[in-house]
Write the structure tokens for this entry.
Amino acid sequence: MTHLLEDLHHFLGQSPTSWHATMEMGNRLASLDFTPLDLSEKWKLEKGGKYFVIQDGSIACFVLPEKKPEKMALCAAHTDSPALKLKAHPTSQKANMQMLGVEIYGGPILSTWFNRDLVIAGRIIAEQKKGSPEDFLVCFEEAPVLIPLIAPHLDREIYKNGLVLKKQEHLSPIASIGKNLDKNYIESLLKQQISFHKLLDFDLFLVPMEEPRFIGKDAEMLASYRLDNLASAHAGLVAMGNVKKAPKNILPIGVFWDHEEVGSQTHVGAESRFFEDVFNRISSTYALSAEEESILRHKSTCLSVDLTHAFNPNFEEKYDPEHKPLLGEGITIKYNANMRYSTNAKTGAHLTKMCEKLDLSCQKFVNRTDNPAGSTVGPIFSTRFGIETADIGIPQLSMHAAREVIACADHLDMCTLLSHFLQEGF
């Protein structure tokens, strides 16, 4: 077991939500001598310096070359995952049970969330007796909840037709039982971990409690929640950490956005000004003209890194016969005729050559013609900033489930590829 795989295991455990993930990434970057920045303050960037900036669940990091960069090498991913989110007024009582109301965030495989220990995690905004509102991150491992599934004896149709869900009625977890239930359950729970005067608001999710685990005869696979897309974020973070000093003509940047699973149209999503604000301040450091900025963008490349649908032998008919990404067979290059993935022949060729140079296996993925593809931050970023982009990933089973699976060797290959790309470009 390499230290990178153990590090991924730890990273997943420390990142139950996008806010926890960016905090963990920021801590790791700071330990590697990256300087933290704040978008609400003036920046004093030094050529040759290493920096990062966090905005809610999004983070960007970069290493400045000593001279004006001729091109950028960008690694892009996202920090969020499909989940169940507590409603604004979540608590209700049925019989002697404390229930919690949830909304669906993104597109989780809902059946995988039943009968599973779930932790409440996220951020809260609270007020002290004197002072302005403060943000706090929370994760209540000591008070898990559970969504109970109906027994087949009470619903014989499950045997014949499988589970049919009514999302409003069937997804509420049980938080507590008793005769004297707490009407302020969430606030009481929060005060067990944080001291505050008044709870103002919160963004809280249910997170599967089972920790990441290496599986298989030789521990060749990793099972966990949030592999999509924290495995990609971790690989990008490792690659940025390997940039000790920027190459003389390349500006390496890692950008990891929140809210990809719900469309990216937020103030910190891939369609926001987050990256644009970072780029503009970097440009000011080198006093780039508008024309020089345009030239820089057109000489640059971005790798959009998101997990790929691995071949599932139990559902073979769902794959194109010639495009079946296999666990353990290397990095996948993703294509789509309607540009739901941003790869073209030019960027695909560069990636193939780079994998050959590094002795890495690579695969190609295209959906069945009768099954439209999903998408990533790649097309959004490429369209918004005019930077040529390619979509890549590693194969994954059970995407959007509460428990997903990747091959360990594929993750190591991705770390190698991104580390080379950020320092060499195409």
Observations:
- The mean pLDDT is 94.
- The chain is about 25% helix and 30% strand.
- The chain has two domains: 3-81+225-424, 83-208.
- The first strand starts at residue 35 and ends at 37.
